[in-house]
Amino acid sequence: MMLAGLNIVPALPETFLLCAVSVLLMLDLFLKENSRAILLGGSLLSLIVTALIVLNVGESGVIYTFHHMYVLDPLATAMKLAAIATVFVIFVYGTQYVTDRGMFKSEYYALMLFALMGICVLVSANNFLSMYVGLELLSLSSYALVALERDSVKSTEAGMKYFVLGALASGMLLYGISMVYGGTKSLDVNEVATIIGSGAANMVLVKIGLVFIVAGLAFKLGAVPFHMWVPDVYHGAPTAVTMFVSSAPKLAAFVFVSRVLGQALPALHGEWQQMLMVLAVLSIAIGNITAIAQTNLKRMFAYSAISHMGFVILGVMVNSQAGYAASAFYVITYMLMTLGGFGLILLLTKAGFEGDQLSDLKGLAQRSPLFGGVLLLVMFSMAGIPSTVGFISKFSVLSAVLAGGNVALAVIVVLLSVIGAFYYLRIVKLAYFDAPESTAELSTDKGMKFALVVNGLFILALGILPQSLLDYCQQVVLASFAS
Amino acid sequence: MSFQDIVFIVFAAILLVSGFRVVTSKNPVHAALFLVLAFVSASALWLLIEAEFLGIGLVLIYVGAVMVLFLFVVMMLNIDIELLRKGFWKSLPLAAVVAAIMVSELILLIKVRGADVKPANDVMHSASNSHALGKLLYSDFIYPFEIAAVILLVALVAAVGLTFRKRKDSKYVDPGKQAKVMRADRLKVLRVQSEKFLEQPQPNADTPAE
Description:
By secondary structure, chain A is an all-alpha fold. Chain A has one domain (8-480). Chain A is built from 20 helices and two strands. A two-stranded antiparallel sheet of chain A has the order 1-2. In chain A, helix 13 runs antiparallel to helix 14 (321-348) and helix 16 packs across helix 19. Chain A starts with 11 loop residues before the first helix and ends with a helix. By secondary structure, chain B is mainly alpha-helical. Chain B is built from ten helices and no strands. Among the domains of chain B are: 1-80, NADH-ubiquinone/plastoquinone oxidoreductase chain 6, subunit NuoJ (Four Helix Bundle (Hemerythrin (Met), subunit A), Up-down Bundle); 121-163.
């Protein structure tokens, strides 16, 4: 029997997560209104157990299972851990918010965990088919999450936009994948690479497919010129969901891009490097310049996310071990920054009041010196100022670009980052040198406040002592990209 | 002429006639029912070339689910058939051109490629194709298959999450709560003083006089 040799141990984290979500959904039916806290506890507990399972099944080598559909390599393990930690933090930050907005129900937690499962499937996929189903699992859950605040017109509109444009991008991606399948007669990542390497593939078809795949991927990453959905979705979605959309899926998108381009189609690097270069430079430029004009913090972070994704693409573009490692480091540390940024918005938000305007930040340092400090760290890190982790991540991507011999590109990117520093520093100015407009108390959620301070300290600590995480990323990439 | 040819001709004739009636029948419910008949005869044709999975799928999915839903919609909406047929003669020339192009394409395709098309049962005549498909789905493709099932579950959760809400105008009352009600919860005895008879109030001066 074919199933006898099936090794499902590597896929245990996903399996456990699925069981846990099902149990939570069932449990919700029997819970009274006032004992919903069990949902939060259950979700956090299942995240911790999933992380422990990931740690235990992870090995230093590469394991394939499910007929090469599933791969467990150090890159997948690292990204799964990062995604689980991110979702954990989002649950902690968002509790007060979802309670105030009437979203504290099992759907929020279930969809969030389903999306996490999609991320896990996506980072462990070794076949275009399993990549696609993982991506759809992630996207469909995200569409529903964005529209979850049903009585808000903005949220519904954002969900609709996200859904329509996301479906379009999925279609493009699928079309590209079908072209690659037509050209190589395989969907397996390693086999596609071998067939292209042996010269047996129909290269015209594969190249047309590559164009569509890159367009689909760029949409999912939110890179210019496929970025139109990003500001609207970030702005319209409930802040707790925006925090999710802006963080964990980027980890999956990075792995997706590097597996498709770096592992399946490395032979075409001449073609895709040019496309990625255009995407990266445009993203950093338009993201940073448009962000200056924003008065809404969520929209500003959306444009900032576009420019950060430009850096991630830049690292992949170099197509070297150092480049992938730099991008992995960048995307992991970006989680810390985006969580911190949206955490600060949640700190200012109360029932019936969204603290998402620039003016809401005025005088934050006077209202609370502690969180003024956290804001300082997050903004300095996003701008890439030394002693915060944002500097190290930008530095490692740029040094990989320089090692790839592209000096002009590095200079352009540095100049564009300087433009970006303006709007981050403007926020610091608002928080430190302007008089506060309101003296209302900040959020009273103690767990969230504690986590936010820890988040800020991590940004500082990794900025001063980045070596261990840098080494870890290098090892991960070295073990996963054998070529 | 073999038995198979006779069966083919019978079902193909039914298919053509019912397809024609879908377009020409005046009653939309009749049209939908003729479409069902067309699907059933098409699935018989699939069975004839031993593509039984497609045949079963056509009946189960299209006839069983899609068309029943469609019939409900057609019956619920009051469709004015005259309004739909209004532009018939105006758009006939365009429709005729499109139809002519399609027919000529089909003829070309059959003439050019027809020579090397082999009957389907030559390709896979040993194993039944639903067996083969099932085997692949539950072995090589078990992983994406299971994830697809999870996606359906997500769709279910999302649909409930986005649409289900407690109705504010619901008249439902909990029988348990009803039984527990005490007199004191509902009834308040007021002691009303008997008062003097007041004079009839004067008609309001503010009301506009006609």
